[in-house]
């Protein structure tokens, strides 16, 4: 069985040393199980949330705030 190669979310380079891989997040998916997000140990603090997902969430929250009926 071969070891799975992880890709750093920050630099998009493969993580060749198993001890250098750090799990920084877990992303849900629309179908099937989610996936783990990995980074090099030096890049773990530099990983930011996915900007596309953050924009979508912001639009949903703004829409809800503007269209919620007064109680």
Low-confidence stretches: none
Shape: elongated
The H/E string reads EEEEH
The largest sheet is:
2 strands, antiparallel
Count of the domains: 1
Give me the Rg, rounded: 17 Å
Fraction of helical residues: 10-25%
- The total strand number stands at 4
Strand content: 15-25%
Q: What is the spatial order of strands in the main beta sheet?
A: 1-2
- Summing up helix and strand content along with how strands pair, one would put the structural category as alpha+beta
Tally of DSSP helical segments: 1
Report how far the terminal alpha carbons are from each other: 60 Å
Residue-averaged pLDDT, rounded?
87
Helices, strands, pairings?
Elements: E1 6-7, E2 14-15, E3 21-27, E4 35-40, H1 51-67
Antiparallel strand pairs: 1-2, 3-4
Write a concise keyword list for the protein shown above.
71 residues; alpha+beta; two-stranded antiparallel sheet; two-stranded antiparallel ribbon; 4 strands; elongated
């Amino acid at each position: 069985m071969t070891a799975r190669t992880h890709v750093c979310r920050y630099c998009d380079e493969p993580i060749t040393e198993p001890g250098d891989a750090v799990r920084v997040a877990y992303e849900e998916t629309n179908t099937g199980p989610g996936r783990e997000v990995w980074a090099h140990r030096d890049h773990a603090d530099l990983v930011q949330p996915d900007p596309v997902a953050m924009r979508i969430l912001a639009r949903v929250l703004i829409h809800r705030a503007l269209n919620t009926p007064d109680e």
